[in-house]
Specification:
Elements (H helix, E strand, L loop, with lengths): L43 E6 L7 H7 L5 E5 L14 E5 L2 H8 L5 E2 L2 E2 L1 E4 L13
Antiparallel strand pairs: 1-3, 1-6, 2-3, 4-5
Length: about 130
């Protein structure tokens, strides 16, 4: 008797859906986002946290390549306009682009694992007044 008899495969393991494995690339997994948190109408804005201080609009657009990005805002320190605050906002043209952008949460940009989340609509209308 041989251990490898292919003629009667009585038991065959079901195919593995690799997208649900924890080792699957994050892009292959459905983002763990509660769709009810997504805005119902534009602007479709993502908050970007833990950004490298040398990040540029171009590097943000490159990070979200393939998505319909319409604007990037990178707030600067009022006392030192050369220095970024380390967070920003990316605005998308459609809800699907925002949803896909959220799946990039914790991905690396430069040497940082950045945070991508739904921006609060209230403070999204402009920066909060200092004071």
């Amino acid at each position: 008797t041989t251990w490898h008899s292919n003629d009667d495969d009585v038991y065959r393991a079901p195919p593995i859906d690799r997208s649900i494995l924890p080792t699957a690339p994050r892009a292959a997994r459905e983002p763990n986002i509660d769709r009810s948190r997504l805005p119902k109408s534009p602007p479709y804005t993502a908050f970007l946290g833990n950004l490298p201080y040398d990040v540029t609009e171009e590097s943000i657009k490159d990070f979200f390549r393939g998505l319909n990005i319409s604007a990037v805002r990178l707030p600067r320190e009022p006392t030192n306009p050369e220095r970024l605050k380390g967070f920003g906002y990316a605005e998308f043209e459609d809800i699907d682009s925002l949803f896909q952008a959220l799946s990039l949460n914790e991905e690396s940009l430069g040497n940082r694992r950045i945070r991508v989340d739904v921006a609060d609509q209230a403070q999204d209308k402009g920066e909060r007044p200092a004071g």
